[in-house]
Amino acid sequence: MLILPLLHLLSPAFGEDRILDLAESELLRSWEILSQKEEAAYWIGIHITDRFEESIRASEGSILSPDEKRFRYADIDVRVGDFSFDNTHPLRDSGFFGEDTHFGTYLPFENHPKAVKTELWKTIDEAYRHSVRRLIKLRSNDAVKV
């Protein structure tokens, strides 16, 4: 029972990783701005994956290829409109290959506030602009029923 909390303390990121604080502050800043726009965002979601993989291949007692991989990825979801009709509503006759409603970006491993916040800001802004354009298409598509 005590092993799991202790493993968390041994993690190299313990006490150092401020990525959630940086993402939260950028989320709140973006929310203040985007919720006041003419086409207001009613939902902004950020999902961050921070993954570290280490693999070792060995043959006949010797190590062949140690390999380390790390990535940090943010998945951004911005919704414009309201719960009953927003930019994630399916577009009629869009086929299997519809437009993306989620946007993503790789984040720097180092927790430099300016670098992380800038990357999140750019992606949230891109997602918002795309969401507004998509909502306009959806409203047109809904109004013109062929």
Strand order across the biggest sheet?
1-2-3
Per DSSP, the total helix count is: 3
Strand portion: 25-35%
Fraction of residues in helix = 25-40%
Rg, please?
A: 21 Å
- The helix-and-strand class reads alpha+beta
Outline: flat
**Oligomer, anyone?**
single chain
| Strand/helix succession | HHEEEH
Rounded to the nearest angstrom, the distance between the terminal CA atoms is 63 Å
Total strands: 3
Mean pLDDT: 84
Low-confidence stretches: 1-11
Strand count, sense and barrel status of the largest sheet are:
3 strands, antiparallel
Task: Please characterize this protein's 3D structure.
The chain has 146 residues and is an alpha+beta fold. The chain contains 3 helices and 3 strands; from the N terminus they run H-H-E-E-E-H. The chain has a 3-stranded antiparallel beta sheet with strand order 1-2-3. 16% of the residues are buried.
Concise summary:
The protein has helices at 3-10, 19-34, 113-143, and strands at 41-59, 62-80, 102-106. With 146 residues, it is α+β, with helices and mostly antiparallel strands. The model is unreliable at 1-11 (pLDDT under 50).
